[in-house]
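Name: NlpC/P60 domain-containing protein
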Amino acid sequence: MPVTARRTALQGAVSQTSEASSSRPTGRTMAKHRKPSKPVAGPRAAAAVLSVGLAVGGGAAISVVSAPQTASAATSKVTATRGYTSIPSRPLLRFRDSGPTVKYVQRALHLGPDGYFGNSTVRILKKYQASWGIAPTGTMTKATWGRLTWTAKRGLLYGKYGTSTTTTSFRAKVLREAARLKGTPYRYGGTTARGFDCSGYTGYVYKKAGKKLPRTSRQQYSVTKHISRKAAKPGDLVFFRSGGGGVYHVGIYAGNNTLWHSSKPGTPVAKGKIWSSNVAFGRV
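Structure predicted for NlpC/P60 domain-containing protein:
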């Protein structure tokens, strides 16, 4: 056979083999002769992106995308922002916040101001909130900010090292003295342990605890700082008012809608329930 004819036959055979190999076998042929492998999307996709990048950039540069910011880093950023927010904006501080605003809160609560909202700050803040009738969440809520700034201006701050420790100790003395005088007879105009009227009793108890009150219930009302029922604490004074707003009786608040008082002739000093809704509370 001529060489040319053999070459032509050879090229045809190669061409047919190539076409046959390029066509994808199906059905039983595929299952019998070749086991298909699972496509690997990751490397192929990466190769395709790299190829496109090289083709577009001429192989000169490859762009690299940085990893997204982690959740912990984002949390740290928010924490730092809250701790540095201005005080007039009343930021809603919470556990693990830090910054100068946290120091303000700690100074207000008479804590060592380290600027970190830790467990000790949470614990004291809860006590402060409970003392003013606010839900003891341990976080700086709007209600807590309002009360904190109000008490800070008036020197009524709560804390181990603050003035309210003295105030708490004073109220405890008031309650002890009030209970000690249980059974003392009522005496009109009485101001001694031989017998008391209502204001004579409160004046005597407060004097024993360390503070002096004026003689009558109206005068005592005029020198106290008026507070709400919700803010009242055992040891504060509770005043009973007439329809016209005048004060006609006074006692010592004992908590849970009760009071210590010297009520009327024939009834000795005793602890009883507050029977009227028209009352006012005062703190010395």
